[in-house]
Each structure stands twice: as C-alpha cells, then as structure tokens.
Here is the input.
Amino acid sequence: MCGIVGYIGSKNAQDYLLSGLKRLEYRGYDSAGIVTLNGRPSLLRAKGKVAKLSEMIASHKTSDKVGIGHTRWATHGEPSEANAHPHRAGDIYLVHNGIIENYKQLKQELTEHQFDSQTDSEVLAALINSFYNNKTKLEDAVTQALQLVDGTYGIAVVSDREQDKVVVARQGSPLLIGVGDDETLIASDASALIGHTSEAIYLNDGELAVCTADSVELRDLASQPLSAKVEKIEVDMQAIQKQGYDHFLLKEIMEQPQTLANTLKGRVKADQHHAQLGGLNMTDDELREVRHVVIIGCGTALYAGQLAAYYLERLVDDVTIEVQIASEYRYRSFNLPENSVALVVSQSGETADTLACLREIKNRGARVLGVINAVGSTIAREVDGGVYVHAGPEISVASTKAFTSQVAAMTIFGLQLARAKGASLMELDKYIDELEALPGEIKALLEKITPEVEQAANKFTDYNDALYIGRDTLFPVALEGALKLKEISYIHAEGYAMGELKHGPIALVDDSFFEVALIQDNWLFDKSISGVQEVNARGGHILVVTNSTEPIEAEMVIRLDSKLDVLLPMLFNVVLQLFAYYVAVSRGTDVDQPRNLAKSVTVE
Ligand code: F6R
Here is the structure.
C-alpha cells in the first residue's frame, strides 16, 4: 500500500528513485512522484502509473544526488497530480505511507499553510514545517511533529535547506534503509533495493533515522540514540523478474512446484515419516498442552486458513480449531481459553488488521505464531515463533503461490501438533506422503491442463456473474477461486458452500450467470452431483472441475488426474488460479495490477 523510496549518495538520485518505484508499483499505482535536490528542487508528479512519471522524468533529467519518491494508493483524496506525493510545505518535501488519523484537527491549526491537496500527508508536511525555523534541524522538526500525530506512517523527508540528509521515520508502515558504498537508499520494501545493496537496516516502530551518503543515525522520538542492526536482504534478482512470462501472475502460478518445494524443504521427509517446522519455539510438551487454535488472516490468507483448518481438525481431535477474519476479530471481545495458540497468516507480513490481531492476542497473554512469506516483515518480527513459507516475492497483486505454501505450512503444523499429542506415524503418513508428492503433482497438472483451462476461460469470459460452489475442503477453494476471478477479471463472483445453494443463491441462476462446481470423487460425490443437477434443471451454465471419471452433465468438465486424495483441493485451486488468469487476459484487464487494489494492505 503505497511505495516509498529515497536516495542520498554519489550517484544519480533519479535513476534509483525511478527503478525503485517501478519495483514497488505493485503496492499502489494511482499516481507517483519524486523530488530531487540540488540548487533548485525538481518536483515531478503524475497521475497514473509510474510509466507516466517515467516519461516526465525523461524530459526533466537532473544529476541531483539526493531525493525521495512515492507511488500511491489513494486513501484521502482521489488519484490526481495534486494529491500525489511528495508533498511540499515551505522548504520541506515529504512522502508518506499510512494514515494520519487526527489530520483534520491538526489541519485546523495549520492556518499559515496553503493546502493544495486533500491528503492527510500534506497535513503532516505542513506540521513538520511549522516546527522548522532557521534554528531547527530537519530531524528535530520531524520529531516534534511526530509527537503530535495519531495514526500510522512510514515517511521520508528532505529539505531544500539541508540537502545533505534524508530523514525517515516509521510507525506501523515498513521502511528499510539500504546501506551501500558511498550511498544510502531508502525503500518501503526490500525489492527496491535488490541490485543496489544486500544490506539493510529495518526500522522499527517509533524509530527515526537521519541518513547521509555515508552514515545512518538512529534515534527514538525522545531523541535518544539507538544502535542500528544491519541485516542481509534475502531476495534475489531472478525472483522479482518476469522471466519471460507475460505477467507476474502467470509466472507465480507456474512456479508453484518450486516455491512449494521450498516450503517443504527440510521440513517434510516421507521416508523418515518426518514433518516438522523449525521455528515454532514450542517444545513437544507445550504443543501437547494446546487445546485451541485460532487461525487469522485476510483475503487469500484467510481462505488458506479455512482450508488448513479442515486438515488440522482431522489431524488433532482434542483441539478446537477456529478461523477468523482479522478485520472483525481485532474488535471483538473474544475469549481465548487457556492453552490457545493463534496462527496469523500473511503473505506480506504487513497487513494492518492481521498485525492488530497479533498485538491484541499477545496483550491477552496468548502465544502467536506467524505463517509469513515476507522475510523481516513486521508481523514476522513480532510473533512468538512460526514459519516462513519461503514462496519468494509475490509481485502480482493477486495472491497465488502464497496460498499453496501457506496451506502446506499449516498442514505441517497440524502434523507436528498431532505427533506431539501421540498420533501414530501410520495416521500421519498419508498427509506426509501427499505433501511430499504435491510439488510434482502440481507440476504434472500445470503441464497437462493449462490449454484446457484456457479454453474454458474463453468459453465463460463474457458472463457477468459467477457462483463457485464446493463442499467440505472444496468450500474454501470455491471462496478463493471466486476471489481470484473477481479481483483480476472484474466479473462478479461469489463462493458458496454447495449445500447452501438451495437456501438462497439458486434464485440467481439464469442465462447470464455461470457456476463453477468443484467435485471431488469421495464420500460426498453423490451429494455434489445433486448440486449440479439442481442448477442444470434451472437452465444454468456449469463448468465442473473434478477428478471423477463418471459422466457429468455440464457445459464443460475439466478433469484432474492425480493420485492425491486429502490434498487434492490444492490442485483444484491451481486450476481456478489459471482459469481466473485466462479469463482476465481474454477480457484485457490489468492482470498484475487490477484496478483499486494494492499489494500489502497496511491501512485499516
Ligand atoms: C487476494 C489478495 C488479498 C490478500 C490479503 C492479505 O489475491 O492478495 O486478499 O491475500 O490482502 O494479504 P497478506 O497475506 O499479505 O496479509
């Protein structure tokens, strides 16, 4: 949600700022801007994608060596040039990620500033400027202003008057300071720093840093000095490139055999009946005591939790498993029984609602484990233990490979819990064997089924509404499939438990509507077929996805051929990812950066 970059050093600032913004564009893409300093500040801002800004920069090249930049996802004020960052107040320029909650009150008192935008960020710029006189240093003015602010921020600030520094600060929105050779680079996400430096300081909440070309001075908001810890950035260049694919989304779907293998590496060994996560920070005795697991997430991470919950329930029978939507749970007066463990699931590790749940649960004394993809992210740093899923950077805004890795990681957690509670190897082996087989099964599926899924997508591309239905473990897959379709193709789609069809949604069945029915060949097969027949009888259009070889009456049937049983829903999900992708391509939408969305939702 919004991307921030900053530069101070011996090289051209515009070059890094622009390349960094291109890398961060998936975090917000309704407007972008940069300012660089040298003599006269050069402020360039454009509505729309970074490509627009890039054209502007091409005709306004500078050789400035200091500057900041921003790519925006609008919260306060529509996407426009005036609302784009950097915002100016007097001599200072500011880029901001987050929300200043008390901006209206603050604005009323800032009568000397002529506001050009509707943003809360400009209020913060004006507030800093109100403390910035000839005797004040920039970092002190920023500190004074931040003491009055309620809300969240990651900011980078420069001043025309002190061109030898960039001041950054963080409260709730990620910020990293890359330490290079005779240069210091700022980014809200490690991907912007790749290729420039492999070392960075991750700012914590309540910290401010004064960056020069060859130093970083860290302090808290009481101006007390802090020591900075330089860490290695663990993202490689390959992982953030399209590698010949038309879209990041397709690349990320196709690389799932490998990314899932990374999730399982060293954790699952079928020949040794072994399934264990290294970082839980829980002994077997502590695991044995667990009686209640609450899984929390948003969007795709939530649905991954819903699917994993079925597996956990089956693996451990003396533990109650519940799944909660983070944005709701954070405000509920929930009771966590003794011996509860929370699993917070997040690809980015920055989602504001999930982070708030984590803090709320920790406050109540329960243990929180993370199921996180982004290494070094805020949630990963605050949990008591957990697992990195190692799916690699997800650049496409719609989440795909993270889902698969999250479900796998939570299943391993379930196996570990079950084993600690005395489950026999025999009982667990089915899951362990299927987990180990899963990357190969996804690979075989992708190789075989892609053309057929593309054909199906072309067939259903002109509908305006879709209903995804599935039972049991295929219910969360239906929810996730519908989410994928709606977010990238803009077709209205809903996921439903198949048994709920006749309790309401069947009223929708008509010619403009299609259903995607997910049917596994198991003990629920006959009941699922009845669901399809009910829709057929009312003239509905159905796409069936199944592993059954039985004849099924439908407009089109995609058949999966796999030896998997319990984890087969993961293959259904891959089919639905591909289906959504090809529908979006045929409708000509912006697949990697769908309208109104942004990766990593760091505001409420
Ligand atoms: C859907 C999608 C979102 C995210 C959700 C949680 O494709 O990307 O629904 O899954 O915003 O994000 P994380 O996992 O980063 O907490």
